[in-house]
Amino acid sequence: MSLIIAGERSGVGKTTVTLTLLAFLCRKSKRVQSFKVGPDYIDPMFHQHVTGRACRNLDPVLTSESYVKQCFLYDTQKCEYALVEGVMGLFDGVSGRQKAGGSRRGAASVGKQKGEEIQNSVLYPTFASTAHIARLLDLPVVLVIDCSRLSGSVAAIAHGYRSFDPKIKMAGVILNRVGSDRHLQLLQDSLEPLDLPILGVLRREDNITIPDRHLGLVPTAELPQLNALIDRLAHLGETCFDWEKLLPLLEARQEDTETRRHGDTGNVFDSFSASFSKTRIKIAIACDRAFNFYYQDNLDLLQQLGAELVFWSPLEDAELPECVQGMYLGGGFPEVFAQQLAENTYVREAVKTAILVGMPTIAECGGLMYLCEQIVDFEGKSWPMAGVLPTTVMMSKRLTLGYRRAVALQDSLLVSAGTTVYGHEFHRSCLRLNPAQPLFETWRFDCLESTGYEGWCSLPNLHASYIHMHWGEHPEIPQRFLENCFSFGLSKKVLD
Fold first, then answer.
1. What structural domains and CATH numbers belong to the chain?
2. What are the respective helix, strand and coil percentages of the chain, to the nearest 5?
3. Do the beta carbons of residue 155 and residue 192 sit within 8 Å?
4. What is the pLDDT of residues 129-172, one digit of tens each?
5. Which of 26, 287, 365, 457 is catalytic?
6. Is the pLDDT of residue 108 over 70?
7. Has 365 been annotated as catalytic?
8. pTM for the complete prediction?
9. What is d(CA 70, CA 17) in angstroms, rounded to the nearest whole number?
10. CA distances to 273, 424, 474, 476 from 302, in Å
11. DSSP 251
12. How far is Cα 451 from Cα 425, in angstroms, rounded to an integer?
């Protein structure tokens, strides 16, 4: 068995509860694998900081239901305990009413099965919710309830969530932000008739707070006191949970059969790797406080397909890594570190030169922002960036957020014209000038509402887009990238 930590809504303390559970287990030298429902990048950073193992995203929109199952089974094989942190409220997701697959333009070579999967899935109106994942993986749920403004009403909330979908196995509740012994007694008395176990009680703790900003929690690399916080959580975990009941629920299921994380893709890996068995394709991965939004499965796929990942910092390093044949600039917070990025003039110029001479480059969200001429931050100050894209990034209070169904309007480094992909947007910036020939036409995932045009592929070796993609279901995307990197490496040797 494994366990899902769900909330009755956003902001009830799911992440704090999850980290407290993980911290206690890891302090007991247990091997724990964590998962996060949805497209989140930052919560998985905290999971990994505690467990020392990469947290895996479970997202059937970005991948598929079958991929979610394969990922979960594969990554729980070598651990003792497994824990899944949910997203938003238990039943919050996206509508499954949209009809199948592609777009109004017809072609949908990457996303062709998505619509059928939504239509055939046994769901409520919300696809990709925590409840969806609980049913898909047949896992029990523990509901975290924020009790700071509740007493007797807690029973109505717990009863409503347990009875809304009888197929959800509600293992119990965790009461968070309990104010006093008297407050706890009122909550316990109200819940007693439900015969629903209270598996944990967390009191209001002013000294256990993770700071946040415009896109969620502040990432782990920016929190020098994080280890002290985790120590406090581990200590708290010893006394606030009913471990006699929780530990059996957290034990990872062991399967008798071998399970691939990436499904039936062995032939793709084998044929590609065999072609380049004598060469490791070096890919520069931007990884520092400004750029750190990556799905671990994407990085794993690059390695399995023959890449050597070279991590480097556009903030701190004086030059690009040597002998790289491609670049991957992930998302993050370049707007927060715009001054430092701007001051690293040599690296900005080196990135621009590498792209202009043909180095294959993926730039997602924050990476796209870095390749623009400048970033205008929240205070209105302008900072020069790499200058590959002839536009300026403007920061604003408006949040662009949601799953996207995107159809490629032309061939690019990663996809062919007419291909439908599924991704996620999450940013508080916009471009002063948009491309004359955009990469994608986009729609909201759950309806036919167009969200416009976006993405740059003005150079054949560049894929720059606000849309984050998870490649787990489609290794042909990173394969296409690495094939271009290999060709660039050969041409570079000829020129040298």
1. 3-93+128-250 (3.40.50.300), 269-495 (3.40.50.880)
2. 35, 25, 40
3. no
4. 999 999 999 999 999 999 999 999 999 999 999 999 999 999 99
5. 365
6. no
7. yes
8. 0.90
9. 26
10. 11, 20, 12, 11
11. B
12. 11
